[in-house]
Structure formats: structure tokens, C-alpha cells
Amino acid sequence: MSETPLLSLVVAVYNGEKFLSTFFDSIKNQNIESLEMIIVNDGSTDGSTEIITRYADIFPLFRVIDQPNGGVSAARNTGLAIAQGKYLAFPDIDDVIYPCMYTRLLEIAVTNDLDVATCNGMYIYDDGRPAKKIFPSDRLSSTGVLDGPTWLNMALESRKFLHVTWLNIYRHDFIRKQGFTFEHGLRHQDIPWTTEVLLTAQRVQYIDETYYDYLIHSASVSHTPGTDDTRMRSSRHYMKILEMLEAINQRYPEAVKRVPGCHWQIAKEGLGILHSINNIGDINKKREITRELFERGIWTLIWKNARGFKLRWRLGRRYFRLKKLIK
Predict the structure, then answer these.
(1) 90 and 178: one domain?
(2) How many domains is the chain partitioned into structurally?
(3) What's the pTM?
(4) Is residue 2 included in any domain, yes or no?
(5) Is residue 63 part of a domain?
(6) For residue 186, what is the domain's CATH number?
């Protein structure tokens, strides 16, 4: 193996014993000789450690860091801090990675000197619904080399873009130079991460080729009906995301002028917050989170970034109901 690995995989593991063997086998089948595996065992309490140990000798460069549970962002940051590869990737262990995914992405990244290389994937449902592409081909087709803001605007305008890290590889020098890290303790931290990465990337390419199955488990927390407490937690996570997106917009005003979708996504995620609040049954909890919405300035952010009469009309109707609630 060369002194500098071509690709570093930063893998967060928390109680993944059901998935790890399949995951490691899928990476072995990538047949990448110059590969660094960084496994961050994020406080697992099941049999993950034994499985990780069993696979340690299969990969030429296999590094394991054990740390107390801090969440996926903390685990990724730990791995990112020690990664040595020319390119980086952040796969999830409970999904399916096709055998040629990373070789294909590395091919276009090296050939075209990319900051970010992106492919397509499939939504796979365990309740019998038919699989479907994550990015529908009629909305997003393969591109040549674009600058990041151009691709981000195309992606957001499709209204089918999914903010994820696991369909991408990233040029390490670009990530290091920008100083990007993941926000600790934040669900859906890929939304601000992807936005800022693409606003600053100079060379990006998307290929409409399917190499990843994203498994949607009907029994998972994110796909089952929530409680009032989970809706409040979700609302607070998304409030933080809106604050981060607004700060990103302020950091890169010239790039954002070229990406109207940067405003749309704040309003869109804001509507999700309002929907969660509307579904809270306990009136006292609903009042508490509604007051926070206004006191933190989240309503102002949503309204400021809303574009078009239809969206503002929808928000206006909700505004008076919310204000009436907290009087």
C-alpha cells in the first residue's frame, strides 16, 4: 500500500452487531488496495467489538478507536481527525453498498480532480413497497464537472435532493482546508454539512448510477408515529438546523445569490417544524415549544427565507394560530 491511502472510510459503529459482518464483506468486495478503514466504536454494548476484532486482519490498514457513546457526529469527527486518505467517505453500516461503488467514484474523482463525487442509490422498504431511486432520473441526470453552488442549486430545485454524506466521496485536502466537522448531538446533521460543503466546493460531479441501498425500516424511530416528547425534540433539532443554515447563508453571501434554494430549504424545514408542533397533543408542551419558536427567532428566519405568495400565505395562516396559542 502506498504511504498515503487513496480512500479513508470513516465508520461510526454503535450496537451494530446485526449489520457489521455484511458491511465489512461489502467493503472487502470493493477491491480497493489503497484503503484505510477507521472504525469508531461509539460506546457499543452489544457484540460489535468482537465482530470488529474478527475483521481487523482482513484489511491492510484497519484502525479502531473506542470512545464513550457520543452520537454519530462525534464518532465521525474522531475518525476525521486521524484520517490519512486522499479521499474520504462516511458510509452507514446498516445499508447496502454495491461492490463497485467506491472504485467508480474514485475513478471520476481522480480523473476530474473533484472535491466531491456523488452517485445515486435506492430506497429499499421492508414493508413491501417497491424500491425507488433516491434521485429520480427525470429530476436529476448525470452531470459533467460543475462548481458546487451550481450543483447545489440544481439539486435543491429538483425538490428531490437528499442531504446525505453516504452517497459521496470528498477530497480530503478540501475538507481539511475548509475545517469542516460535524455538529455534535444534532440529528440530521447532514443537512448543514452538505449545504456548506457544496457552497464552497469548486469541482463536483454527479453520476446517475445506482450503487447504494438505503434501507427504510418501518419499525425504526424515524419512521414510526412520534410522541409529544419526540416531536418536541425533533422541533428543537430542526430549529438548530435552521440557525446553522442561516449562519451558512451569511458566511457565503455571494455563493448564496446563485442558489435560491438555500432560502427555500430554510422555509421548507421550517414548515416541518410547524407541522410537528401542530401534532403535539399536550397543550402545555405545545405552548412551550411555540414560545421557543418565537423567542429564538425561528419564526423570523422562516418568514424571511420564504419566497412566493403561496408559501407566505400558508405561513401567514399559521402565524395567527400560533400567536393565539401563546397569548
Answers:
(1) yes
(2) 2
(3) 0.93
(4) no
(5) yes
(6) 3.90.550.10
- C-alpha–C-alpha distance, residues 294 and 40, integer Å: 38
- 273 and 167 in a single domain? The answer is no
Domain span at residue 282? 225-326
Residues 253 and 195 in one domain: no
Say whether both 18 and 138 belong to one domain.
yes
User: Is residue 1 domain-resident?
Assistant: no
Residue 241 included in any domain: yes
* C-beta of residue 232 within 8 angstroms of C-beta of residue 285: yes
Q: Which parts of the chain fold into alpha helices (H)?
A: 20-28, 48-55, 72-82, 101-112, 148-157, 172-178, 190-200, 228-251, 253-257, 261-278, 283-295, 298-305, 309-326
Could you identify the residue written with the cell 474514485? 106
The reply to whether 204 and 294 lie within a common domain is: no
Domain C-terminal end among 184, 216, 248: 216
List Cβ neighbours of 286 (8 Å cut-off, separation of 6 or more): 277, 280, 325
- Residues in Cβ contact with 99 at an 8 Å cutoff, skipping those fewer than 6 apart: 26, 29, 30, 31
Which cell numbers in the block locate residue 46?
452489544
Q: pLDDT tens for the chain, 327 residues: list them.
A: 458 999 999 999 999 999 999 999 999 999 898 999 999 999 999 999 999 999 999 999 999 999 999 999 999 999 999 999 999 999 999 999 999 999 999 999 999 999 999 999 999 998 889 999 999 999 999 999 999 999 999 999 999 999 999 999 999 999 999 999 999 999 999 999 999 999 999 999 999 999 999 998 765 544 455 799 999 999 999 999 999 999 999 999 999 999 999 999 999 999 999 999 999 999 999 999 999 999 999 999 999 999 888 889 989 889 999 999 998
CA 281 to chain CA centroid, nearest Å: 30
Distances (CA, A) of 22 to 31, 52, 90, 194, 280: 15, 12, 16, 27, 39
Q: Give residues with Cβ within 8 angstroms of 189, minimum separation 6.
A: 72, 73, 182, 183
Specify whether 176 is located in the same domain as 139: yes
User: For 34, which DSSP code?
Assistant: S
